[in-house]
Amino acid sequence: MAKILIIDDDPDFTLANKAILEAAGHEVITASDGKAGLESVKSQDPDLIILDIMMDSIFEGFSVTTTLRGTPEYMDYRDIPVLMVSAVKKMTGERFEIPPEAKIAEGDEFLDKPFTAEVLLSKVNKLLGA
Amino acid sequence: MVLRAQPHILVIDDDEVARDSARVLLSRWGYRVTLAETGEKGLEALKADPPDLLVVDLQMPGISGLEVLEAVREFDPTIICIMVTGFATLQSAMDAMKQGAYDFLPKPFSPDELKLAVNRGLERRFLEKEAQKLREEKARMEANFVTMVSHQMRSPLAAVRQLLEVAATESLGPLEAKYKDLVTRANLRIDGLMQDMNAWLNMVRIEEDGVAERKQPVKLSEIIAGLAKRTQMEAEAAGQTVVVEEAADDATLQVDRESLMEALYNIASNAVKYNRDQGQVSIRSHSTRLQADIIISDQGPGIPKAEIPYIFDDFFRSKSPKLKSKPGTGLGLSITRRIVRAHGGEVTVTSREDEGTSFTVSLPLQ
Q1: Fewer CB within 10 Å: N-end or C-end of chain A?
Q2: Is B171 in the A-facing interface, judged by CB distances under 8 Å?
Q3: Looking at residue A50, which CATH number applies to its domain?
Q4: What is the tens place of the pLDDT at every residue in B241-300?
Q5: B211-364 belongs to CATH 3.30.565.10
Q6: CA atoms lying within 13 Å on the CB side of residue B137
Q7: Half-sphere exposure for A8 (CA within 13 Å, toward CB)
Q8: CB B262 to CB A94 under 8 A?
Q9: Which of A8, A52, A91 to mutate to test the interface with B (most CBs of B within 10 A)?
Q10: What are the sequence ranges of the domains in chain B?
Q11: Is the predicted ipTM greater than 0.90, yes or no?
C-alpha cells in the first residue's frame, strides 16, 4: 500500500479523502497549503500527491506542480505522480486550459470534486501503477 | 438616467453669424455650447472636452465637414453628429450619412428645425448610454453569478458530498442499514442539485465568442458516432435501442466539439428519458452543400402542441402529466439552443401525440 500526500485547503475534503484512502489501506499525510505540501514532499517522500488546484488562488495549485517538476531542488521528487482535483470548473467537463508552454504545471490525472470513492481509488491505483 | 446633466454641444461652422445664432439658441434651450470656426479647431476642442452632440458645417475652408465626421467617428463613435450645409444635395446628404452623421440639416433652417434635430440626437445619445450601462451591468451580474455559484455554492456542496461519500462507502466502519439508506438518499439529492448547478453555469457560460474561439474542423460522422456511443449506454440502461442512420457523404463542420456534443446529448438524453418502454431512439444525419442536419427522434408521448413554442425557454417544464413526472431542470433545451445558435445554426422540433418527437439540429457548412 502506498503513502499518499493530500494538499488541500478544505479540511472537510482532506478528512473525507483521508478516510476513503485509509479504508483502502493507504497511508495518508496531509498539508493545507502549497508551501507546507512542498515541505512534506521532501520530508515524507510520498508515492502519490493529490493536489487541489484552487486553493487561495489557481496559482497556488499550479505553482506546486511547477516547483515539483521544474526546479533542481525537487529533482529527486519530480516523478511522483500528481492527481489534480478541483471543485471549480469553467464548463462541465472542461478542464482549465493550460497553454503548451505551461504543460509542466499539469498533473497526471484530473478529477472534478466531488468524486465517488470508486473513481478516486481507480485513479489512485492507475497512477500508482497497481 | 445617465448624463441628464447639462448636455454639451459643439458647433463647428466657418460662418460667424451661423455660429452666433446657434450659440444663442442652444444656450437658451439649456445646453452648454462650445464654438469652433474651423474643422481643425473643432477637432481640438472635441478632444479636449468631448461633446454629446456635434453640429458641423459640411463646406468649410481647411478640413471639410466630412473629414471632421471621419475623425470624430474614429475618436468616439458614440458622439452624435448633425451635418449642416448651405448647398444641400442628395449626394452630400448621402456622403454625410455614410460617414456616420445622425442627421442632416439644409441651410437655412428654422430654430424649431434645429431644436428638433438636436433633441432627437440627444435622446438617441441618452438611450445609447443607458443601453451601454445596462449591458455592462448584465455582464457584471453574469460574472458575479458564475463566481457565486461556482465558488460560494458549489465548493461547500462538493465538500458535503465528499464527506457523505465516506459514510456511503462505510470507510470508517459499518453503518446501520437504516442510516445507510438515509445517506444514499442524501447523496442522490446532492448529486441532482450539483447537476442543476452545472446546467446553470453552462447556460451563463455559453457565449458566441467562446464558441467561435474553440471552433475546429470535425467530421459529421465523428459527431454522430460520439453521440450514438454516449446515448447507447443510457438507452441500454433504460431498456431501449438506438438506431443510427448516417449521411452518405461525410461533411466536415467547424464546431466547438465539447459544447456541441453537450447540446446534442441533451436532446438524445431527453429522447431516452421521455421514450415509451422498449422504445427506439433514432439518430440520423444528412448534409447538403450548405448545411448539415442531425435528427434525433423518439417514440414517446409527444409534446403537446400548445407547449411547442415554449420548450426552448429557460426553466420551461411541461404541464403534461406524462412528461412532468420525469426529473429535469427546464434548462436542457434552452442551453441546447444557445449552443446551436452560437454555432450559427438552429434547432427545430416536430412532435406528434403518441407517436414521438423529432429534433433537428441544423448547422452551417462554412
Answers
A1: C
A2: yes
A3: 3.40.50.2300
A4: 999 988 777 889 999 888 899 899 999 999 999 999 999 999 999 888 889 999 999 999
A5: yes
A6: 6
A7: 28
A8: no
A9: A91
A10: 8-109, 146-205, 211-364
A11: no
